[in-house]
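I am going through a labmate's work and have reached the protein record below. What it holds is a sequence and that sequence's fold in token form. Please read both lines and tell me whether the tokens look consistent with the sequence. Do not assume that whoever made the record got everything right. Thanks in advance; the entry in question is below.
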Amino acid sequence: MSEAAVMPRGNAVAVVAAGTDSKGTVRPDGRNRRAAETRRKIIEAAKIMIAETSTAPTVVAVARRADVSVRSVFQHFGDVESLFVTVMDAIGQDIVVPQQQATDSRPLAERVASVVQGFAEVFDKIVPLRVAAGQFVDHPALLERGEAFKLELRKATFEAFAPEFANLDEQAREELADAIGAALSLDAWIVLRRRDKLSFDRAAAVWRMTLTALLGHRFASVAAE
């Protein structure tokens, strides 16, 4: 039977709990443990395949890599989109947006370097997942998580440059944050690393120059007013 023939649709992000079957019936403890282990193997296999190929693996390929049946995959995940979202959440648990202290008194250049290094390290881990997510780009769950991630990055930006933002009015603060968010975005990092094929260090250097220029331009404009 082909993958298409067994692939149910329409239940994105509906996940069968590890301790129940598809009808919600509680399994005995032994079956619970086996189900949890199967689920773990499926998620881990998909994570590894995405990291290796930067593409969303098929359910058949994941089942083969995890050494489980295709039916087992669908017993735990409603459809291929649900599997991808769950894998994305699993990867996200290992990624922490670097937090900055609003009272950071280090020179601006040091804070710029710290922010760029932190963002770049996070994005480098996410690039394969983001590239693989292309076919699911409009999935509501992915959009929701993407927006939450952007808000975390925006918060970190405000915290890192709190002394500088404090000198701006509300509109100027928002405009500067928007500019930094666009320049230091995941898509921008993908362009540098994948399209332009820059090394990590060179791409980070580009971002340091960009962020320094944005901050300098904004505050030069304020001083001139």
In short: Confidence is low (pLDDT under 50) at residues 1-18.
